[in-house]
Amino acid sequence: MTAETDNILEIDAIEVIYDSVIAAVHDVSLTVPRGKIVALLGGNGAGKSTTLKAVSTMLAAERGMVTKGTITYDGTPVKTQNPAEMVGLGMVQVLEGRRCFGHLTVEENIIAGAYSRRLSKQEIRAELEKIYGYFNRLKDRRRSQAGFTSGGEQQMVAVARAMMAKPKMLLLDEPSMGLAPQLVAEIFNIVNELNQKEGVSILLAEQNTNVALRNADYGYIIETGHVMLHGTAKSLLNDEKVKDLYLGISKEGRKNFRDVLRKESALRPDLHQG
Amino acid sequence: MIEFLFFIEVVVAGLLAGTMYSLVALGFVLIYKASSTFNFAQGAMVFFAVLAFVGFMELGLPFVVSFFVTILLMGLVGFCTERLVLKPLMNQSEDTLLMATIGLGFVLEGLAQAAWGVEVRRLDLGIGDFPIPWIMDSAGLFISALDLTAGLVSAILIIVLALIFKYTKMGLGLRAVADDPGAASSIGIPLGNIMLLVWTAAGIVALVAGMMWGARAGVQFALVDLALKALPVLIIGGFSSIPGAIVGGLIIGASEKVLEVYVGPYFGGAIEGWAPYVLAIFFLLWRPEGLYGEKIIRRV
Predict the structure, then answer these.
(1) pLDDT of A48-67, one tens digit each?
(2) ipTM, 2 decimals?
(3) Of A63, A87, A115, which has the smallest distance from its Cβ to B173's Cβ?
(4) Contact assignment for A94 to B186 by CB distance below 8 Å
(5) Rounded to 5 degrees, what are φ and ψ at A80?
(6) What CATH number did the domain enclosing B224 receive?
């Protein structure tokens, strides 16, 4: 893997339609280089979650379909697989909203993550200890019912559970959602650590542009199902348009990307600016 | 003293009969946990399983062979149900699934009768429905050997299932699916396989329950309705709880017998058939999620 680019995930111009009528993603292309963290940014309804679910094949369960374009994961075209098969290939999605098994204990939740692997009891224990090494906080809470742990702990459970499947690639859907900044930082630290020590590639959907870009290598900004801008995380953090729209550093009011591009082309004044 | 002994006899007979309600209720709980739907076909499965078992016996197969062949058959029923009913209806509303189970019930009843005929069969397990002599001699209680066996068998089966759920990988998978099927599938738990396992387990439970009831009352169509007694059991115990099914079954079994004997005469008898439902209504008013029903955990 020297001459050709080694991408673990390549999405080429996909369109996703729900219930045969509602288009959620129109034209999204992105690549995740092996071992890197790529952030997928955008507001509510931009198509971030849909893109992730298209990759993990969780779409079918919500009556969604990839109608155009191709997805290639680790050299394999993603078409008719089901989520269990994707997990078998080393791709695990951490769903939006944590989705812990509320009535199971923290430890049972994490062990459930190893369901797809054939491990002996000792191997599971060893894996558990390794996971607790990253998520110290969960070790103290191992016997608690997951439904009664805090939001941050639940997010950690969800990531830890996914790591038990020994993924080559993690899809994280809004890990920062509803969490205090300190916890968000803690979770992103763990994600970075997992990326570096376990070599797991990460595609991360986030609304929290600032945190996401600070922790990612590369970023894509999507809006209403289209990729509007992409570049290295550093370049996006310093991009005037991104600062303006997503990082809240602008002095002007909030707009969307389309308006900025329109303004830039200077064809007509910005109609949406209040 | 005689009065009191009689009361004990009534309660014990009720409790033992109750274990069988627990067993059928357990079949419902299994499927409710895995697919959040009340499986109206459970009664038909009881009927189908025991009729098949008796059918195999009549073909001259030994008891044990018939038993295992029937278990295989119930596995096949589970497989077909998963492939032909549940899978095509995946992600449909729970009401749709409920209707589908009603349909499935009719199909199973029809198939069973088409294959094995409609007349009432006798099922002889080699255990008579007579009082056990040593209990009669030592305690002066009349306790039926069949009741006691049925109670023990049910108890063992329930304990085995409970242990499987708590301590095996499959059990963990099932509990995960019960909590959040989407999240379970996101970490690679194959929903189809879990459904197949659950339906097979429900089939085995149905077979054992059917055998116990069939031995007492004959293998006949009325088993389908008898199995619906599980409904008040579940309302009392909670739809998603194994301990709930057990305790609910015991409560229904004991109370229906006690009510029948002591209150029944004022209503002209035979209140056993409806008393449990009345009890269930009071429970709905007092504690709608049931004794052990899982209260929805919701952090605010």
Answers:
(1) 999 999 999 999 888 899 99
(2) 0.84
(3) A115
(4) yes
(5) -105, 10
(6) 1.10.3470
